[in-house]
Design a protein that fits this description.
The chain is globular. The strands form nine sheets. Strands 1, 2, 5, 8, 10 and 11 form a six-stranded antiparallel β-sheet that branches. The protein is mostly beta strands. β31, α7 and β32 form a beta-alpha-beta unit. The longest helix is centred in the middle third of the chain and has 17 residues.
Length: 591
């Protein structure tokens, strides 16, 4: 039995080079998804494959799953004159909760082609991923002196015929369509800022980069360009995130947005000081979108970026348009009850059954800007059957991949409702989406019992209680003693990044682009309600920023005048006009 990880891949398996299936175009192999050859041992074994497709794909009938199998048996039973005709085992294939085929396994090498029925083209998981489940049923191993092993080769895979389509612009689905979890075809995103941005426009770009880092856990690669540096190929291949005042971005005039920023609009009133976030299909590629964050004034651009950083945008008549008049009004940090049952989260009592690995996932939200205080715990109300092998069966409870506790099944807890009280450490609780997982392994007393399918079971009661007391986040006190080993501290010690100031040359796109990548990295771990990093140009850093902020300076030393002021404070200083650091007191110097 192979237990899938949180990503849906088998544990201990890593990506290897792709091997396209002969004769098939656009064939996606399992090894392209990070899976290796897998041996499935009878009498029962299960394998899972999970992935998502881009929003720009409209799947069509004719999708195929091709399995490359090699079945080996050791048996005292001969079924025919030629045992290679049938091994005695079956393989059941389920796609998106639809059983699509039952394969009679022959000994030796076997290629099986399965056409997806149309109803199996649509994902049923809450996270939007497709799921393929392959179940080996070698019940014959229980009836005779018989052993079955099946090699599921990683050159197996599938084709997904599709037509390109335009994504539906909808701000409530962000970060989709720009980012999809485990996408077969990750799509590039570019932040576009004016050629000569104000510090407020560049600050907004850093805020948005950090926000995407938080929304996608750093898995969406973000690059930054200017209108004069972007190529026609980049415009056609990427989702564009355009940031700045409309009059400094002529590029916007080519996009059909639902609202204009600089004048009245019949469907949406937009004031000059209002921040605007809107999305439209890209005019350069109908399978991509353009996301615009800005307004008519610098203050409006900052409002749009900060509202976006909350992760929740209010929309009106147009789901592709949000107009922000005031940050305090736009960002609602709703309180949630201290005590929440699984029923209140939308889950009914559920039952796991059958031999092997099984799991339930429960999602709940911790509002941005909140953190746990006091004791948090989970009261898991469960029941289970009495025909387990108690020495080999049990369940483990995880929160966000952190182990919280475990259940040891016993005769004393069988056939009754039991309660397991599990303490939840504060470090396991995240701001935003949290996933509570109950993962169980069911081993029967007798693998060959006819009761194994439905007789091995565990139920999780909908009255199970989650107790988490939350308070507003307080800034973390910082220490003056720092080294590079503490990164990303101290820059992320403030939950909103309000103590972080980026320092850039005023005319260096490459340093802005590097800053955006750093901001994406920093954004992964911060939990403030609204992200508010600052940006300063190297020739104009206010005194209060020098005194009260951590400064992250990006660029060539010769273009950052403040570096000369810091020569005596740095482990390796710079001579005026030089980009070579000089480390004092060492016998050998290195560049």
């Amino acid at each position: 039995l192979v237990q899938p990880s949180a990503s849906g891949y088998a544990q201990g398996q890593g990506p290897v080079g792709p091997t396209p299936y002969p004769g098939e175009s656009k064939f996606i192999t399992f090894e392209m998804l990070g899976l290796q050859d897998e041996v499935m041992i009878g009498p029962f074994a299960t394998s899972f494959i999970r992935f998502s497709t881009p929003d720009s794909w409209a799947l069509e009938p004719g999708a195929k799953l091709i399995l490359e199998l090699e079945t080996s048996v050791r048996s005292s039973k001969q079924f025919s004159d030629d045992i290679s005709e049938y091994s005695g085992a079956l393989m059941e294939v389920t796609i998106n909760d639809h059983v699509v085929d039952v394969i009679f396994l022959r000994t030796g090498v076997q290629t099986v082609e399965i056409v997806f029925p149309e109803e199996a083209l649509y994902p049923t998981r809450e996270d939007g991923r497709h799921s393929i489940q392959i179940f080996l049923d070698a019940t014959i191993d229980c009836l005779f002196d018989h052993e079955t092993a099946v090699l599921l080769r990683s050159v197996s895979g599938f084709t997904l015929p599709h037509q390109d389509k335009s994504p539906v612009p909808n701000l409530t689905f962000l970060p989709s369509p720009i980012y999809k979890i485990d996408s077969l075809l990750p799509e590039k995103a570019l932040i576009v800022v004016p050629d000569v941005p104000t510090k407020e426009e560049l600050q907004s770009a850093m805020t948005i980069a950090a926000s995407f880092g938080r929304m996608t856990e750093g898995l969406q690669e973000i690059s930054l360009v200017s209108p004069s540096s972007i190529t026609e190929l980049e415009k056609a291949n990427a989702h564009l995130i355009i940031v700045g005042k409309q009059n400094s971005l002529p590029l916007l005039n080519q996009v059909n947005f639902p609202a204009t920023v600089t004048g009245p609009n019949p469907s949406q009133k937009v004031e000059a000081s209002d921040g605007v976030v809107q999305m439209a299909v890209s005019p350069w590629n109908a399978t991509r979108v353009v996301l615009y964050l800005g307004g008519a004034e610098d203050v409006a651009v900052v409002k749009a970026a900060q509202a976006f950083s909350s992760g929740v945008l209010r929309v009106g008549k147009h789901a592709s348009l949000s107009v922000i008049s005031n940050i305090a009004d736009a960002i609602e940090i709703s309180d949630v009850p201290v005590d929440r049952t699984l029923a209140s989260l939308g889950y009914v009592t559920q039952t796991l059954s059958g031999v092997g690995y099984n799991a339930f996932d429960y999602e709940f939200i911790v509002p941005l800007g909140k953190e746990p205080t006091g004791d948090s715990f989970f009261d898991l109300n469960y029941s289970h059957s009495a025909i387990f092998d108690y020495d080999a069966s049990g369940a483990v409870i995880f929160l966000n991949d952190e182990i919280l506790g475990s259940i040891r099944f016993s005769a004393e807890t069988a056939n009754q409702v039991s309660t397991l009280n599990i303490n939840i450490p504060a470090y396991a609780i995240r701001s935003g989406r949290n996933v509570l997982s109950v993962q169980a392994e069911f081993v029967p007393i007798d693998y060959c019992s006819t009761l194994n399918n439905d007789g091995l079971w565990m139920s999780v009661n909908q009255d199970s209680l989650l107790h988490i007391s939350l308070v507003d986040v307080n800034p973390i006190a910082t220490s003056l003693e720092r080294d590079l080993g503490t990164f990303p501290s101290p820059f992320t010690d403030s939950p909103t990044l309000d103590k972080l100031g980026f320092v850039f040359p005023s005319d260096d796109v490459s340093s802005w682009a590097l800053g955006a990548k750093i901001a994406t990295n920093l954004g992964q771990g911060v939990i403030g309600k609204v992200l508010t990093p600052s940006v300063f140009f190297a020739d104009n850093i206010p005194d209060d920023a020098r005194t009260n902020m951590h400064l992250l300076m990006v660029g060539q030393a010769s273009r950052l005048p403040i570096i000369i002021e810091l020569t005596d404070k740095m482990p390796a200083g710079f001579e005026p006009g030089s980009d070579i650091a000089i480390e004092d007191g060492i016998e050998i110097s290195y560049n």
